[in-house]
Design a protein that fits this description.
This protein is α+β, with helices and mostly antiparallel strands. It has 3 domains: 60 residues, Winged helix-like DNA-binding domain superfamily/Winged helix DNA-binding domain (Arc Repressor Mutant, subunit A, Orthogonal Bundle); 207 residues, 2-Layer Sandwich (BirA Bifunctional Protein, domain 2), CATH 3.30.930; 43 residues, SH3 type barrels (Roll). It is built from 9 helices and 14 strands. Strands 3-4-5-9-8-7-6 form a 7-stranded mixed beta sheet, sandwiched between helices. It has a 5-stranded antiparallel beta sheet with strand order 13-12-11-10-14, with no helix packed on it. Strand 11 and strand 12 form a beta hairpin. Helix 2 packs across helix 3, helix 6 packs across helix 8 and helix 6 crosses helix 9. The radius of gyration is 21 Å and the shape is elongated. The chain starts with a helix and ends with a strand. One of its GO terms (cellular component) is cytoplasm.
């Protein structure tokens, strides 16, 4: 976890992005000696930050490491709460597992767990999620909404919209959502979202939301059976993307939409989700545990349930299914 002094130092650089910070200004912010300031600056350098030091002006950060360490995420983060507490690991089994433990220990809302690699990443229905080192975003966030348990699926749709908006902003690409929470580019999957709940009978104690985004993988990073199904932002854009910048954008979009949802309900989110949905208005096959239903996807309900109209004009409510388009 980040120390409070390190957070203050990075916030100071964030709030003065184009200016130099003098040693005395940093000492005043941190409440420490000039000697201690030098030690903090050297610590940043050891972590891969490039700092320019100019006599009589001070310091400024001119380059950051290609890692998603807490310091790099904090530098430039614009949220109020989301991502203000960061638990970073080089390698974990899954970020979800760590986040569940932290939630049980009382971690506050907005706490994130982020890792460079997952050794046992998983998606919906316990499917394996390929999570190679230093290539993607493997992140879980702890939410504590004052909501009844049946509202939990709506949060997954909020996450999907947040991912799409963040990718649009950072890369200029135009992703789409396949119900309920797969984010696609050119028909291939780039993001998976896994929402898990800790709840009593009538209220949610916490939501652990896992988000995996394929950012800088090359085609060779995927096993042959996934190469025609999965892609990455770097493959589609033709250049590497800053993972820390994308995390910052994602957290800000997610925080803003979450606040709208808490204040105004699901309807504004529903309209946004439908505007990004690849399947609405198209013929799909929904494969559920009890069988397959084919028909036209006509929208989602205010609860986030998919509406499918079959060939006889009957509308089916799809709560959980694998969707095939066409």
């Amino acid at each position: 976890m980040q120390s409070e002094l390190r957070k203050k130092l990075l916030n100071a650089f964030t709030n003065n992005e184009e200016e130099y910070l003098s040693g005395q200004a940093i000492a005043d912010v941190l409440g420490c000696s000039r000697t201690a300031v030098w030690k903090h600056i050297e610590s940043l350098r050891k972590e891969g930050f490039e700092l320019e030091a100019v006599r009589r002006k001070g310091y400024r950060i001119i380059g950051t490491p290609d890692k998603v360490i807490a310091d790099e995420i904090s530098l430039g983060l614009k949220t109020e709460d989301f991502g203000r507490s960061i638990h970073y690991e080089e390698v974990v089994e899954t970020t979800q597992k760590v986040a569940h433990r932290l939630a049980n220990e009382g971690a506050k809302e907005g706490t994130i767990v982020v890792a460079e690699e997952q050794s046992n990443g998983r998606g919906r229905m316990d499917r394996k999620w390929v999570s190679p080192k230093y290539t993607g975003i493997w992140l879980s966030i702890i939410l504590r909404p004052n909501l009844p348990p049946h509202k939990a699926p709506q949060l997954t749709l909020i996450a999907a919209v947040s991912v799409v908006q963040a990718i649009e902003e950072v890369t200029g690409l135009s992703p789409e959502i396949k119900w309920p929470n797969d984010v696609l580019l050119n028909g291939k999957k780039i993001t998976g979202i896994l929402t898990e709940m800790q709840a009593d009978a009538d209220r949610i104690a916490s939501i652990i939301m896992g988000i995996g985004i394929n950012v800088n993988q090359s085609k060779e990073d995927y096993p042959p059976e996934l190469q025609d199904k999965a892609t990455s932002l770097a493959i589609e854009k033709g250049q590497k993307i800053s993972r820390a910048e994308l995390i910052q954008a994602l957290l800000l979009k997610l925080e803003n939409l979450y606040k709208i949802y808490i204040e105004k309900g699901f309807h504004p989110i529903k309209l946004l989700w439908e505007s990004y949905a690849v399947s609405i208005g198209k013929y799909i096959t929904a494969r559920t545990l009890t069988g397959a239903i084919a028909g036209k996807a006509i929208g989602i309900t205010d609860e986030g349930v998919l509406l499918l109209e079959d060939g006889e004009g009957k509308t089916h409510h799809i709560y959980s299914a694998d969707i095939e388009i066409g």
